[in-house]
Amino acid sequence: MNILIVEDDLDTAAFIEKGLLQHGELVKHVASAQEGILVASSTEFDVIIFDRLLPNMDGLDAVKVLRASGILTPIIILTALGDTVDRVDGLNAGADDYLVKPFDFSELYARLKALTRRKPISKVLLSLSLGDLVLERTSRKVIRAGRQIELNTKEYQILEFLMQTPGQLVTKTMLLEKVWGFSFDPKTSLVQTHVSRLRNKIDKPFDLELIKTVRGCGYIISDE
Amino acid sequence: MTIFFIASIFKLAHLSSEQQHELVDYIEEVQSLYDEDGLQTMLTELDLESKPIWNKKQSIERLSDHESIFSITQGNTLLVGSEVDIPFEAKPIWSYLDFDNGHEIKVLVYSKVLEDTLLLKVAQPNSYESGLASGVLVNVGMFSSFLIFIVAFLISYFASFRSQRTLLDIKKQMHIISNSPDSSRLSVKSKTTMPSEFASYTNEMLDKISALHGTTKTMSTGIAHDLKTPLSRVVNRLQSMRQDITDTQAIELHINKASQDLNAVISTFNNLVRLNAIESGKHKQKFELVNLSELVNDLALSYEPVFEDSGRKFSHSAVDNVICFGETDLLNQLLCNLLENALEYSSADANVWIRLQSHTSGALLQVGDDGPGIHLDDQPHVFERFFRADVSRSKPGNGLGLSIVKAICDVHDAKLVLLPNQFGAVFNIEIPVSSTPL
């Protein structure tokens, strides 16, 4: 991926850059909103990481400028302001995702991956499949190795979300946001409990385990 | 004294009107004498048979002796009586006669046409009785004014003395309060000079300030415990890392533990930020109609397996289509925090429930468990920031969960109550509902 980081805090920028370089991504870092707008308008990136609190200009205003000038590159906002209202403001300004500082690098990376994978075509896919697992979106049927599996609403939503980005990390926070619509962390094993039940239905009766746990981070669905 | 004064004024008015009537009667009599027996008889009756002419000085003398003056004129010629120009009045009327030296005399003036051009005019001074009464009245007035002045002076002196004593009282009591602001209050007893309303309002204000002070103290303690403890552990971990710098496995363990501790600190901060944001009311601009019944059912289904895995029995019931005006995310957190609380503090085999029912003035939401509940002493404090019944703070959490619940209820104008006399912790929330369909 070719990624632009707009962040005035050099430590945070270095931390993100190092992580991305380790994953073999291409990174360009600028420290001001004006530079960010300039670079984003002249070069094509796969995703832009925009800090919210920048000197001289609010990151949200910069995002509005970019969107107004027709730049459709996915943008993730980083912020120290963590409340839902701020989050809604961020999304209304045209950002695609919103991450509260401090964050785990794996959380940021998982979100970047999800953003770049979110091609419009995946939205209209009527079925998602991975190995011998098929998820039919119209009938909400889940079939593995020819056997239909009964899932409750939450289990189905978790599986659908995982299958949209196979091989990519999906964090607990991402599931809470996408499946439950929570912007807060309920502290318990809510996500773990539901993923564990999903696993019992999807994986336990079969030889190959599709849903893998990345300790302390989240889950990956993959048939490798 | 005042009553006597007022009564005297009435009496005086009565006397003057009586004199008017008497004068009319007398002149009527004189008229009839003239009509029946002629002018001479009439003059005799009036003691004017010698047909005197009184100059101004003589007229004044007569009036001063409380004697009437008369004038009988024919055309413009004075036949008999006073030279003083008595005004013509068809009805008896009180008037002032002007004399050259600026001397004025109050008289009752009355005129009567005896025949064609023959005119009788009378000027009668105050009767002796009336003069006496008005003299007495002036004296009484002066005396009572003096008395009123003395009384007013005494009252104002006493009032200022009293208010000065009140101020001294307040000063003294304020000094006592400043030494022990949480326990001392102003006395509201009637025997003190301080107005009891002032004392109760001041006490109310002091109570509120004490409560705020208490919250700040609890918060400081909370921050000290919840932030200092994990930060100290991180410092220890960093020291251990220096010692184990060559042992990769040990370093990884230290990093994991340090991260856990720092995450706890950040979570506390996030909750504080969240709590302040909720309390600021800025979420209100995002309020919309929310189907509370669906929200409760959804959450119940999500939490059912969590409670089941923990060994507790979980049940839920919700009436359909309860619509309220609020924010889904906040309402979700409200219920999650209460359910998390039940999960954390109820006994391992407890029954936990969530219910949504119609209520007289809205909807009634209840989240409860059947034991062991919250200790009676702790119940009044459960919604305070950083309050934890577990003083050792050994269990995870930061004592902000129920404060957030309270703040969410407040922003939704909902009434939150921890029900007393229950086996477990049972929270009732009365939420105003919207009659508008979704």
Q: How many alpha or pi helices of chain B?
A: 9
Percent of residues in helices of chain A? 40-55%
* pLDDT averaged residue by residue of chain B: 84
The backbone outline of chain B, from C-alpha atoms, is: rod-shaped
Q: Whole-Å distance between the termini of chain B?
A: 78 Å
The chain pair with the largest interface is: A-B, 26 and 29 residues
CATH class term of the largest domain in chain A: Alpha Beta
Total helical elements of chain A:
9
Under the CATH scheme, which architecture of the largest domain in chain A would be assigned? 3-Layer(aba) Sandwich
Oligomeric grouping of the chains? heterodimer
CATH C-level name of the largest domain in chain B: Alpha Beta
> What is the 3D form of chain A?
elongated
CATH architecture of the largest domain in chain B: 2-Layer Sandwich
Roughly what fraction of the amino acids of chain B lie in strands?
A: 15-25%
**What is the SS-derived class of chain B?**
alpha+beta
For the largest beta sheet of chain B, what order do the strands appear in spatially? Answer: 1-3-2-6-5-4
Describe this structure as you would to a colleague.
The complex is a heterodimer of chains A (224) and B (438). Chain A is α/β, with parallel strands linked by helices and 224 residues long. Chain A folds into two domains: 2-117, Rossmann fold; 122-221, Winged helix-like DNA-binding domain superfamily/Winged helix DNA-binding domain (Arc Repressor Mutant, subunit A, Orthogonal Bundle), CATH 1.10.10. Chain A has nine helices and 14 strands. Chain A has helices at 10-22, 33-42, 59-68, 84-92, 105-117, 120-124, 153-164, 172-180, 190-202, and strands at 2-6, 26-30, 47-51, 53-54, 57-58, 75-79, 97-100, 127-130, 133-136, 141-144, 147-149, 169-171, 211-214, 218-221. In chain A, the strands form four sheets. Chain A has a five-stranded parallel beta sheet, sandwiched between helices. Chain A has a four-stranded antiparallel beta sheet with strand order 8-9-10-11, covered by helices on one side. In chain A, a hairpin with a 2-residue loop joins strand 10 (141-144) and strand 11. In chain A, helix 2 runs parallel beside helix 3, helix 7 packs across helix 8 and helix 7 crosses helix 9. Chain A is elongated. Chain A starts with a strand and ends with a strand. The mean pLDDT of chain A is 89. Chain B is an alpha+beta fold and 438 residues long. Chain B folds into three domains: 2-133, Beta-Lactamase (2-Layer Sandwich); 196-280, Orthogonal Bundle (Helix Hairpins); 283-431, Heat Shock Protein 90 (2-Layer Sandwich), CATH 3.30.565. Chain B has nine helices and 13 strands. Chain B has helices at residues 2-37, 39-45, 56-64, 128-179, 196-243, 248-280, 292-310, 328-345, 401-411, and strands at 53-54, 69-74, 77-82, 93-98, 104-115, 118-125, 288-291, 313-318, 323-326, 351-359, 362-369, 415-418, 426-431. In chain B, helix 1 (2-37) runs antiparallel to helix 4, helix 5 (196-243) runs antiparallel to helix 6 (248-280) and helix 8 runs antiparallel to helix 9 (401-411). The longest helix of chain B has 52 residues, at 128-179. Chain B is rod-shaped and about 150 Å long. Chain B starts with a helix and ends in a 7-residue tail after the last strand. Chains A and B meet through helix 4 and helix 9 of A and helix 6, helix 7 and helix 8 of B.
